[in-house]
Amino acid sequence: MKKIAALALALSVLPAASFAADPSMCMGCHRAGSPTAPDLAGMPADKFTAAMNEYKSGARSNGTMKAMSMGLSDADIAGMAAHFEALGK
After folding, report:
1. DSSP-assigned letter for residue 84
2. Which domains does the chain have, with CATH numbers?
3. Among candidate residues 34, 37, 27, 73, the one with its CA nearest the CA of residue 53
4. Which residue has better confidence, 67 or 18?
5. What is the pLDDT of residue 25?
6. What is the Cα–Cα distance from 13 to 85, expressed in whole angstroms?
7. Over the stretch 45-87, which tens digit does the pLDDT of each residue have?
8. How far apart are CA 83 and CA 37, in angstroms?
9. CA distance linking residue 24 with residue 79, whole number of Å
10. Average pLDDT of the residues in 15-44
11. What residues contact residue 18 under an 8 Å CB cut-off, 6+ apart?
12. Is the whole-model pTM more than 0.85?
């Protein structure tokens, strides 16, 4: 029974880690006109990078963003930061 519970817990985290590096996954919440999340299009890369690293370290508190950031490498964050910054040009 403990093995099944551990497997279920591990699988519940997998989707966030699997899709977190895809910038399109962010746009469900982070789009223009969203009342709950900032629009990422045109966000300066350094601001995005700092925010994601703060979520990852726990310096910023948000359960969803913490879960999404944990699956990202530094290279993933840098790539996404460049992508979102370029959307504003």
Report:
1. H
2. 2-86 (1.10.760.10)
3. 73
4. 67
5. 85
6. 28
7. 999 999 999 999 999 999 999 999 998 999 999 999 999 999 9
8. 18
9. 13
10. 80
11. 71
12. no
3-state SS of 30-73?
Answer: CCCCCCCCCCCCCCCHHHHHHHHHHHHHCCCCCHHHHHHHHCCC
Note the Cα 40 to chain centre separation in Å: 11
Whether the per-residue pLDDT at 35 is higher than 50: the answer is yes
Count CB neighbours of 69 within 10 A: 22
The two tokens of residue 31 are 């789009």
Q: Which one-letter DSSP state was computed for residue 87?
A: T
DSSP one-letter string for 2-14: HHHHHHHHHHHHH
H or E segment at 83?
A: helix 74-86
